[in-house]
Design a protein that fits this description.
Bound molecules: guanosine-5'-triphosphate, magnesium ion
Largest sheet: 6 strands, parallel
Oligomer: single chain
Helix content: 40-55%
Number of helices: 9
Strand order of the largest sheet: 2-5-1-8-9-10
CATH superfamily: P-loop containing nucleotide triphosphate hydrolases
CATH architecture: 3-Layer(aba) Sandwich
Distance between the termini: 10 Å
Shape: globular
Number of strands: 10
């Protein structure tokens, strides 16, 4: 099956939160799920996202039992920054090798990006390029906070301009009390329907694996 690349309109929007939900739901549907965090920055002694993701996958997929959080990343860096700023010499081949290794341990590999789509890995190679190179189906997580209309539309433009097949879902969490008046009217008018991670996870999965 095609991998699912989980990205967001920015850092701290809910990629890990969404990926954990996907792990639970896909596993309960009978898929052998794997997880890959290609690059994690801001790592002091252990990668926080990779640890959370791996521990969740280990509940369901014995092939991930003996791995450590470092085994499900290709790179970890101490500096909490875009990957390129933490290390200007990242090898794309190394990312792809790790992808191939982890793919062989599961039916469906979930890949959590770092930050948003135009986060640089190399001077002219961004997270969005990695998602495309891995031929993934992409989930764009957007937030409910003020500013999300602009961020969501910009990310969609970038995805459409590169011909990337994507679904999107809102993490209804930040600014939740003002969402109905501040943001929802536009989304209601612009999009026939939009999905939320909290209420529509089953439907999101259906779209992602179809
Ligand atoms: P980075 O990987 O650091 O770029 O962030 P991310 O996009 O993976 O965001 P993450 O899933 O870590 O969520 C960001 C923060 O918001 C975390 O501290 C989560 O605990 C919190 N959070 C996100 N969504 C929810 C939610 O729906 N409910 C609650 N209670 N907390 C949430
Ligand atoms: Mg995360």
């Amino acid at each position: 099956m095609r991998p699912i690349f989980i990205t967001a309109t920015n850092t701290n929007i809910g990629k890990t939160y969404a990926t954990l939900k996907l792990i639970d739901n896909l596993s309960q549907m009978g898929f052998r799920v794997g997880v890959f965090k290609p690059i994690e920055t801001g790592v002091e002694d252990k990668p926080v996202d990779a640890t959370l993701l791996l521990e969740r996958v280990q509940r369901y997929n014995p092939k991930f039992k003996n791995l450590t959080p470092f085994d499900i990343t290709a790179y970890t860096f101490k500096l909490p920054s875009a990957p390129f700023c933490a290390n200007s010499n990242i090898s794309i081949t190394k990312l792809i090798d790790k992808y191939n290794e982890l793919s062989s341990l599961c039916d469906i590999l979930l890949i959590e990006g770092a930050g948003g789509l135009l986060v640089p890995i190399k001077t002219d190679y961004f997270m969005i390029d990695l998602a495309k190179e891995l031929n993934s189906k992409l989930l764009l997580v957007t937030s409910s906070r003020l500013g999300t209309i602009n961020d969501t539309l910009l990310s969609m433009e970038a995805l459409k301009s590169r011909g990337i097949d994507f679904e999107w879902a809102i993490n209804l969490y930040q600014d939740i009390n003002s969402f109905d008046s501040v943001t929802k009217p536009f989304f209601d008018t612009k999009f026939n329907k939009y999905l939320s991670l909290e209420q529509d996870i089953k439907q999101i999965i259906k779209l992602l694996i179809k």
